[in-house]
Design brief:
112 residues, mainly alpha, 64% helix
């Protein structure tokens, strides 16, 4: 799945807003926004917030969520740990569908 497809699925207004903005200005963003002194002085969040009046609030919110999302492997490690509990020596013949359902239930119920 392409990035554009994922973005369209998660926030359908994001890409049309950027495309509409591009059509109005002739350029997706004004060249002044990419000057070296501007880029060096602003964080990405500040840069997007400076466009708040030009963008759809949903598109701005989605952009800020992408920029402020924390990257962590803790959730993935918990998932593999839960799968280790489900896929024991006694239950090693479970199919992937059944095993994923059990892992989901264990995570939802927070059983250790």
């Amino acid at each position: 799945m392409t990035f554009a497809a994922v973005v369209s699925e998660k926030n359908p207004k994001f890409l049309p807003t950027v495309m509409k903005y591009r059509a109005q200005s002739g350029d997706p963003f004004f060249k002044e926004l990419f000057k070296e002194e501007t880029v060096n002085d602003l964080t990405a969040v500040q840069w997007w917030k400076s466009l708040a009046s030009e963008l759809d609030p949903g598109a701005l919110s989605f952009s800020l969520q992408l920029l402020t999302a924390s990257s962590s492997t803790a959730g993935l490690e918990r998932l593999f740990s839960t799968f280790g509990i489900v896929n024991s020596d006694l239950r090693n013949r479970l199919g992937t569908e059944k095993a994923s359902q059990l892992v989901f239930l264990l995570r939802v119920l927070n059983v250790k």
